[in-house]
Amino acid sequence: MSRMFEALQQAKSETVAETRAPSSVPAPSEVPRNADGILALDQVPAFSIRALPEHRLVVRTDEHSLGAEKIRVLSTRLRNLQQRRGLKKVLITSSISDEGKSVISANLGLTMAMRGRRKTLLIGGDFRRPSLAKIFGISELPGVTDWWRGEESIWGYLRRVEGLPFWLLTAGDGVEQPLEILQSERFSKLMAQFGEWFDCVIIDSPPLLPMADSGVWMNLVDGVLLVVRAGRTPKRLMQKTIKSIEKGKLLGIVMNEASEAQQHHYYYYEKDGQKAQRGFPAPAPKQQT
Hints:
The structure is a single chain. The chain is globular. It is 35% helix and 15% strand. It is α/β, with parallel strands linked by helices. The protein has a single domain, classed as P-loop containing nucleotide triphosphate hydrolases (Rossmann fold), CATH 3.40.50. The protein has helices spanning 2-20, 58-61, 66-85, 101-116, 132-135, 144-149, 179-182, 185-197, 213-217, 235-244; strands spanning 46-47, 89-94, 120-124, 159-161, 166-169, 200-204, 223-229, 250-256, 268-269, 275-276. The model is unreliable at 1-24 and 261-289 (pLDDT under 50). The strands form two sheets. The chain has an eight-stranded mixed β-sheet, sandwiched between helices. It has a two-stranded antiparallel sheet with strand order 9-10.
C-alpha cells in the first residue's frame, strides 16, 4: 500500500511540475504588445553593427561597391517573388562549405530591412558551425540551441539592430546532433510563429550535401536560394544538390565571386520549374559576398 501511495504522490508532483513549467514558445498572451495591442518586437535588446571590411558585410561597410549593388538587386527580385508567391521563409544554402552562403544571408537580410523597411528576421540555422555573429562584428550570443536546452521564451534570445526593422537569432552554442531540434514539433511551431511575426525570415543553413540538416530545414521554409561559388563548386555536385531540393522550392541560384561572363550561366527558376535566361545577379568578383 505504501508503495502505491508513493507512486501516486510522485505522479501527482510530476503533473504539477509539468503544468507549471514555462512554455518556450510564447502563448499569445505572453507576447509583448504595446498599449494598442500591436506586437512589440522593438522591445527586444538592440545592438549596433560593428562589422569590419574583412567581415564582408558590404551593404554596410562599402555600400557603393558593385557587390553591394548586386545584393540590392537580389533583394528586389526576392521581394518581388515574395509578393507574387506569398513567400515568407527563405532558406539560403550551398552544396559544400565555404561558398559564401552566410555572408550572402547577412547582406541580403540586412538589405531587405534597409530598403524595404520590412520586418526581417535572420536566423543562424547552422547549429554545428555558427558564424553569423562574427559577420556583424559582435560576440557570440545565446541562440536557438540555448533556447532548446532551457525553458526561457524565445524573446530572451532575439536581438534587434538599432534603427532598423531587422532582428537576429543566432544558432547559439554548436551541437553535434541538430536533427533532434529541427525535427521536433516544438521547433516547427516556433517557425510557424516567426512567419506570423515577421514579413521576411531568412535562414542561413548548413551545406546540403555533407549533412542532413538542410534537408530537414527545407520542410520548414517556403523557398530555397542556392549559393554557388564560381570556380569552386564542382558541376556534378551542383547538379546533385539541385536534384535534392524539393520540387517547386528552388527560387534561384546565386553565383558568388562571378565574373561578368560567368553571370550568364546560371538560371532563375519560375514557379513551374522551367528555366529561363534570367537570374539573380552574382556579387562582384573579389568582393566575396
